[in-house]
Amino acid sequence: MPSKNMLPKGQRRRTVKPEYRATRGVEPTAPPVIPVLEIEDDAGERVRAFTAPSEAAGLRLDQYLSQAIPDISRARVQLLIEHGQVRVSGQVAKAKLKLQGGEPIEIDGAPHPPPLHAFPEDIPLDILYEDDHLAVIDKPAGMMVHAGAGVAAPGEEPDERNHGTLVNALLHHFNKLSHVGGDLRPGIVHRLDKQTSGIIVVAKEDSTHRKLSEMFASRELEKTYLALVHGTIARDTFIVNLPIGRDLVRRTRMTTRRSLESEGVRSALSHMQVLERIRSARYGQFTLVEVRIETGRTHQIRVHLQALGHPVVGDTLYGAPHQFGRPQETLSLDRNFLHAARLVFQHPRTRKTMTMESPLPSELVNLLAALRAD
To answer: Is residue 262 packed enough to be buried (19+ CB in 10 Å), middle (13-18) or exposed (0-12)?
Structure first.
């Protein structure tokens, strides 16, 4: 029950019991879903005009636009507003403007950032296997697979946002890569999240790329991950079968709370097995799990474990704490404790069964050792 000390001064003698009893057991009203704006970037610098829906009433301008335009961050929205590219009712607006709903809004130019492009960059690669058709890479955490879409103009300097990607490293290390994925994603058949480490296979020529893509689509590969999660999972083995779609409120996240019939929501299946339960007096309780995924949805393992109430250690996007432990003795991890440890597939050309394995990176090994030692 809320404390009376939460009441304004002068009212603290008043009991809060009636308000508490009236709202007990009542679910809070869900925030309105903001309709998504379908905005393309292929129309040059034209002005894009639309009307704020009634659902936007009470929201700040930057808050509304970041929810209404897919794949655009609030920081990007604020930059557009600072540059005077957003007008409300014909006037250049500020980010903190509160909308009423029904206002005409104009965005001058493309709302998405300028296009990125891939370029060779001398970055060390841990190559687990290589032949004339494909290569298997052990990707470190912190490295993006690829950055974005588009091609720079001739003579244009590489965009800073596109430095340090796996694609850049591949272009430097290999003479040829497949072009099925386009100029931005040469050789890329599948992806790992930026803060996830482990095995990723790349194609050197188009026929191998197409065959690998078919194998991923038909679930002919065996993908196994290791994850350390907060809390104790009681069951030894279990299956998580929850659909995954974009979170309509926090668009950088995925969620299992939308129905499979909703637009953009897809089925997702994860097989999980507990490998170890760790109970640390100083740092808390943890479970090391092995996860084999049949589908490859965005953030699938992270979302499924978060839906169970056991977020992956280090995964602050899905509810994991930044630090854990006693106030004077805390641990932290600046990446997700999620590692693509094993990939088994049939080589598209030789038909040989390929079993690729990657050991846990040192930072994950050290964290486990610290928890086990307590």
So the answer is: exposed
